[in-house]
Specification:
Number of helices: 15
Strand order of the largest sheet: 17-18-16-15-21-22-23
Shape: globular
Strand content: 15-25%
Structural class: alpha+beta
Low-confidence stretches: none
Distance between the termini: 57 Å
Length: 488
């Protein structure tokens, strides 16, 4: 039948990834693309750079596969990032505004002060935060010089990639990405005219919303594009969390903890997001998830590498951090672009506390890894309080899940086992599963679930009292980072 290819268009690079019918990786290619920071708090991408990386990685992957046929292509992407282009020319109308961007924080405050938060929470499951696409698109239309004419096309990165893969014939998305725009009614599973009106967004520029698992179109050489999901929902699917109550955490540029909560959309939960997990063509309704979004985790390691230059590459953080037994009271709060769940404070800023003359780069490296574990615990505690259930295990994936020390710190803080699967590229794997399921490579969700295999399980190595004491220091450090930057 052939392999299934996933395009994982992430925040810092694109990965093309192929799996066989057993869900075993058989090839991959990766390319980074440039990041643009025109002013503090602003983060942008050139959409053409993303498409160039897609083309390059697909070409390299197809070359490595030789004569093996491709049964289907799936797409997964950095969510919330806002792309606008011209339907006639296919050219971007501006740089893409990335999910990390904070430029619309003041606008979110205005909407909150105007009493629009209950509407946003009820319709979208989100909060009023510049993280999401809606206010980014509004900014482009009001201050970014983008004209709201009949040829304007808006989409998250999945829509941009799909448009180009299909030669400009398909302008579409699916519910997991649409649910991150602040323009989509997650209960009605359709674009909300009321929310579009609130933000001055013409509905004519929005993509068609189709099932996550189902055929969207074909490439110019006839390969079906049949599965799309936002990166975190794709990872939930790739981790085989297809049963309500199962949870995963993806340690990437940020970290995202999602729990499958079934086919009934829950009421808004304080500190957490409600999101669509996926929809399957021919099946009614949607699978929903509770989500905690942490903006900066792996990006903090990149900061140590690129900003402070205290490590040469990301992998070097583990031996450096392990060279000391503790941080000696040093805490790093990596609120470089504000704080996400459960704080939702776009005005928080990065903070380092507890430094003494004895502090070394090793202590700072360990504090960086601890900050990832602490932020995940923040989300888990909010999620467990909301659901009334205690987490019994956490499935971990993403680039930083290869860091054994991080997994140990995480198990210590949560006091539950942390499980890493054999295939750690679960975001790409989830997109491949959605596409392959649509095209008959796999016959059922049960068959997909049965392919998950455990690689490593890390159990707590310290007692709860010790973990709680360290976490207490973390919460004190967070208090010092909140509302640091004055609203403008």
């Amino acid at each position: 039948m052939g392999v299934v290819v996933a395009i994982d268009a992430g925040t810092t690079g694109v990965r093309a990834f192929a799996v066989d019918e057993a869900g075993t990786p058989v090839g991959w290619s990766y390319r980074e693309f440039p990041q643009h920071f025109p002013t503090p708090g602003w983060v942008e991408h050139d959409a053409d750079d993303i498409w160039d990386a897609v083309q390059t990685t697909l070409a390299e992957l197809r070359a490595s596969l030789g004569d093996q046929p491709v049964a289907a292509i799936g797409i997964t992407d950095q969510r919330e990032t806002t792309v606008v282009w011209d339907r006639k020319t296919g050219r971007p109308r501006s740089r893409a505004i990335v999910w990390q961007d904070r430029r619309t924080a003041a606008r979110c405050d205005e909407l909150r002060d105007a009493g629009r938060l209950p509407l946003v929470r009820e319709r979208t499951g989100l909060v009023l935060d510049p993280y999401f696409s809606g206010t980014k698109l509004e900014w482009l239309l009001t201050e970014g010089g983008v004209e709201a004419d009949a040829d304007l096309a808006f989409g998250t990165v999945d829509s941009w990639v799909l448009w180009n893969l299909t030669g400009g014939t398909v302008h579409a998305t699916e519910p997991s990405n649409a649910s991150r725009t602040m323009l989509y009614d997650i209960r009605a599973l359709e674009w909300s005219a009321e929310l579009c009106d609130m933000l001055g967004v013409p509905m004519s520029c929005l993509p068609e919303v189709r099932p996550s698992c189902g055929r969207f179109g074909t490439t110019e050489d006839g390969i079906p594009v049949s599965g799309i999901a936002g990166d975190q929902q794709a990872a939930l699917f790739g981790q085989a969390c297809v049963t309500p109550g199962m949870a995963k955490n993806t340690y990437g540029t940020g970290s995202f903890l999602l729990m499958n909560v079934g086919t009934t959309c829950p009421d808004p939960v304080e500190g957490l997001l409600t999101t669509v997990g996926w929809t399957i063509d021919g099946q009614p309704g949607a699978v929903y998830a509770l989500e905690g979004a942490v903006f900066v985790t792996g990006a903090a390691v990149q900061w140590l590498r690129d900003g402070l230059q205290i490590i040469d590459d990301a992998a070097a953080i583990e031996p450096l951090a392990a060279s000391v037994d503790t941080t000696d009271g040093v805490y790093l709060v990596p609120a470089f672009t504000g704080l996400g769940s459960p704080w939702w404070d776009p005005y928080a800023r990065g903070t380092v506390v507890g430094i003494t003359r004895g502090t070394t780069r090793a202590h700072l490296a360990r504090a960086t890894l601890e900050s990832i574990a602490f932020q995940t615990r923040d989300v888990v505690e909010a999620m467990c309080a909301a659901s009334g259930e205690r987490l019994t295990a956490l499935r971990a994936d993403g680039g930083a899940s290869a860091n054994g020390l991080l997994l140990q710190l995480q198990a210590d803080q949560l006091q539950v086992p942390v499980q890493r699967p054999v295939v750690q590229e679960t975001t790409a794997l989830g997109a491949a599963y959605l596409a392959g399921l649509a095209e008959g490579v796999w016959s059922s969700l049960e068959e997909v679930g049965a392919q998950w295999q455990l690689d490593v399980e890390v159990t707590p190595g310290t007692d709860a009292a010790t973990a709680d004491a360290a976490y207490g220091g973390w919460t004190r450090a967070v208090e010092r980072s909140l509302r640091w930057e004055a609203p403008t």
